[in-house]
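Input for the complex:
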Amino acid sequence: MNNEIPNVEHVIEEREDFSGEKVVPFLIFYPKNEEDIVKIINFALENKLSIIPWGYGTSLTGAVKCDKSCILIDMSKMNKILEINDVDWYVRVQPGVRLIDLFEELEKKGFMLPPDPASFFLCSVGGATSESSGGMKGVKYGSFREWVLALKVVLPTGEIIKVGEPLRKNRAGYDLTHLFVGSEGTLGVITEIWLRITPLPRRKIVTIVAWLKDFKSAGEAIIGLRKNRILPELSEYIDIDVIKALNKNLNAGLKESQGGMLIISVEEDLVNDVVKVLEGKTEEIKITKDDEAERIYSLRAQAAIAVKAESKTFFAEDIVVPISKLPYAIEELNSIAKKYNTKFYIISHIGDGNLHPNIVIEDPDIRQKVFEEIGRMAIDLGGSISGEHGIGTQKAKLMAEQILKHNGAKVLDLMYEIKKLIDPNDLMNPDKYVELAWKYSNSNNNYK
Amino acid sequence: MNNEIPNVEHVIEEREDFSGEKVVPFLIFYPKNEEDIVKIINFALENKLSIIPWGYGTSLTGAVKCDKSCILIDMSKMNKILEINDVDWYVRVQPGVRLIDLFEELEKKGFMLPPDPASFFLCSVGGATSESSGGMKGVKYGSFREWVLALKVVLPTGEIIKVGEPLRKNRAGYDLTHLFVGSEGTLGVITEIWLRITPLPRRKIVTIVAWLKDFKSAGEAIIGLRKNRILPELSEYIDIDVIKALNKNLNAGLKESQGGMLIISVEEDLVNDVVKVLEGKTEEIKITKDDEAERIYSLRAQAAIAVKAESKTFFAEDIVVPISKLPYAIEELNSIAKKYNTKFYIISHIGDGNLHPNIVIEDPDIRQKVFEEIGRMAIDLGGSISGEHGIGTQKAKLMAEQILKHNGAKVLDLMYEIKKLIDPNDLMNPDKYVELAWKYSNSNNNYK
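Predicted:
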């Protein structure tokens, strides 16, 4: 030790994140303010340790993987909602606030923050900002990046800065805010977040559940909505294997239609238009009452839990494909599943093209092969290897492939240079995400 | 000349932008594709000339100011709408497309791109992207930065890259797209733009015109809307001097109420709620018929023209203040006007706190003084010195002040370092915007 451990609450402890990654840090600190974080940064620099901010560990991509060379900064003691401004329509929070607690406080005042990742009952606002998390309302309202107005950040070089302004419109300088949103803890420690909020919907929202004849109809139904210029509040999908898992493990009692279940919520006066689009594609269609809709969404939210009960391994994919390519992507997923004699238990924010095929293959080599095949299919279709879970360690290689194919090697270079510019000592969450993707692309000629 | 002039259409010509800045470039090129632009970049580098992309010259802040040391790249020959995708809900265009032409094509297909700067009938999509332009619909739909999905860019180092993906959700790497949106031609030449589009509103929109008793009521009315969780489609304001200018110069025949005119458009079922908010604040209130509403908006759109006819000089301010500070900001503007014995002819996207006091003072020193006083008031109120017009040369000093006060000197340093990283030869639009702001802050101790 070159330096005494700073006077900030800390423990030595092992953890595991939601992807099952072991997290065995040198030390876990619980900072209470920015000054504590500066102390921790100095301590890490002097002892050549790296730093990873930790919300509540709901990462699915190895973004908080950590060994003895790293310090975890547990943000759970910085968990205050600092301000809900009902005139300027923003909320200012510390990163350790749980998203569910923020949602509840906002709802009391007639507001919502739309992005609602499936882990909202557990995850932190800081984590959701660092991952630019999405959720079921993405089709209408986008993901976190569309709602973050400004951030307070302790930089890896120790400066405390604010990026952005808590204003809807601001043109003072380059947009650095969006560099930090989705930066996965690689550019600094976020200590305050200003988020735009919006009034709760005023109109009655009706949920339509469609049990589909075949899987492909799901994609065609979404294309039908698009062609008819119908923008739903939500449009979700689960396949037949997910329905079966829900029935078996959560006693859901859902009809097991071959093509799975499509759940579409729209403002009341759009219901007939949606039903028309679904014509000929369904075994059964149901316009739900309020409590039924709630039950359906609660089951949808628990779908991953039901699938997890089916298998020892569970690996959540997170591809995005252009809506126009949904039917083709669905066919491709079917044929990949057949080839490897497996099921994908597809859960999907289908309305924005974000598909979560869940891989339950136990053999790690075959699992990796399937994982990459699915990712490459998304890339080939002009889609993305991640819509909302992020990159971490698990998707760095595929991210490199996507950027080299869609954007150009120079784009990955620029991202890497920006990382070095903001974090010259490579202190924050090293060897993951952009850095790891850049290394893949520069160490292996196959990628160029 | 170290190099022959490349084989790309060009002229020698003088121009003037909308802010009255002289544009006397060494040469004006009309590229037809990315390869032409690479040739121009190489020519500029070898001859130590700088480059400025030019849309249709509607900049109000000196962003395209240019002398004999600079080459203008006129993008008007790259003016194709390449794709309107009615399933994936994006449009892909070249930068020289006029915004009005894009609006018309989209409307035919039932779509809109909401940001509608007052110059939409003239300006280019490339210009609006480079400035992150706003407009009247900003209160509900934000400005350009919320609608750009991806960009093709020729970098100042000659590489052709794409940043972003034409997908609503994409987590593959740091968000570089938002660095280029609002970069004012300082980071590269944008050659293709993917923009998100959305269906035209399905519901009847009704426009309410309120002639106010006093100016302050305008701010209080907007706060009232906010407190009642009413999100209008538009909410615009013009003060009594603008009304008088419209009556005098465009024969508008509008009632000249002391407090100016507030124009609020909402979905039909919200009209009564709005009227209730306005109670006690108006001399007269009118719920307009469709053609009346159109006439009112057409007059609102021509307000700047009417004001320009009143004075030899016309200098459009563009501050943003938090909604909660609107009444105070309005009082402050009144007292600054009194102090300098002038009128501000305020035009405002008041619903998002974006105020355009128009300075008509002829003496350049006093004009500059007033200009800075207004900007500093916005900064002091936690607002911004620009909402949608950008920085260029005119606001660089105030931008430095805002960032030093709200964000920290390190933020300006980071912006400057990013400029150097992407444009190491300082080729693109040098000595403006971020670079100029950084120089102000580092050359004068008063700013630190």
